[in-house]
Design a protein that fits this description.
Strand content: 15-25%
Structural class: alpha/beta
Number of helices: 10
Strand order of the largest sheet: 1-2-4-3-5-6-7-8
Number of strands: 8
CATH architecture: 3-Layer(aba) Sandwich
Order of helices and strands: EEEEHEHEHHHHHEHEHH
Largest sheet: 8 strands, mixed
Helix content: 25-40%
Shape: globular
Distance between the termini: 31 Å
CATH topology: Rossmann fold
CATH superfamily: Alpha/Beta hydrolase fold, catalytic domain
């Protein structure tokens, strides 16, 4: 895997898949980029540059654990842009990685050509997602055989009386089949220290981020799944309002990993946005 040096000297790795204009991709987790695969075949249209976040995959563990904090990961993305020699770049983030991408756009608006936020997390801009919102969305799946157990776990989590996140996993997929279950296992963060520090105090400053995004003139795509409990469509609507030029798309029948639920739909929609 090719590597580059972060501002603090940590060696970071990335994968390159496909040909064409680069699309820098930031995974969620925080974890490595392997679970993104080729984003359902998006590599047929763009060269995907998939970053392994520090301390994950092929990237080194930093000396300073506080550098796992979300706002500090923004500088790793800027270092990657410089390493690739891109005056401006198209940027894609997924899940927790959208917080990094959003804060990057706030800090370096002139460096972003297009911004695609997939399964967007709203923490960076301070849009709260209530337990009631998640439970109401979950009711769309009430006819699924796994629903009773998964919903009971979700209700306990949202009410602060439980923490069985594994039990609610089926809600994050359009189809909870063997393929989804394998991908779920592969996508779980392995570096718990990076998870613990990602959202530490100071990681987010929603007020200043919102103000800075007013200067981000790049077109923005927010794509979430119809069933995505992590990024409910009603919350994504509020997120989209933060940007001067945003398009919100809800993928039918999809969960938090829309390129797995319907790769053709996801790729066609995302590629069309990137073509502009």
């Amino acid at each position: 895997m090719p590597t580059f040096s972060a501002p603090d000297g940590t060696q970071l790795a990335y994968r390159v898949i496909g040909e064409g204009d680069p699309l820098v991709c930031i995974p969620g987790g925080p974890t490595d980029s392997a679970y993104l695969g080729d984003l359902g075949g998006l590599s047929a249209y763009r060269q995907l540059v998939l970053l392994d976040l520090r301390g994950t995959g092929g990237s080194a563990i930093p000396d300073d654990a506080s550098s796992y904090r979300c706002d500090r990961l923004v500088e790793d993305v800027e270092a990657l842009r410089k390493h690739l020699g891109l005056p401006r770049m198209d940027l894609l983030g997924h899940s927790a990685g959208t917080n990094i991408a959003t804060q990057y756009a706030a800090g370096y608006p002139e460096r972003v050509s297009k911004l695609a936020l997939i399964g967007p997390s709203t923490r960076a801009v301070g849009v709260a997602i209530t337990g009631e919102t998640r439970r109401e969305l979950a009711q769309l799946r009430k006819n699924e055989p796994w629903f009773p157990e998964a919903f009971a776990a979700l209700q306990a989590i949202t009410e602060g009386t439980g923490s069985d996140w594994e039990a609610v996993a089926p809600f994050f997929w359009g189809r909870w089949d063997a393929t989804a279950q394998q991908h779920h296992t592969a996508s779980q963060p392995r570096n718990q220290e990076s998870v613990a520090h990602f959202a530490a105090e100071g990681a987010f400053n929603p007020e200043s981020t919102r103000a800075a995004l007013a200067a981000c003139k790049a077109p923005v795509l927010l794509l979430t799944g119809e069933f995505d409990l992590n990024s409910p469509p009603v919350s994504a609507v509020k997120f989209a309002e933060v940007f001067p030029d945003a398009t919100l798309v809800v993928q039918p029948g999809a969960g938090h990993y829309p390129w797995c639920d319907d790769a053709d739909w996801f790729v066609a929609t995302t590629a069309a946005f990137l073509r502009g």
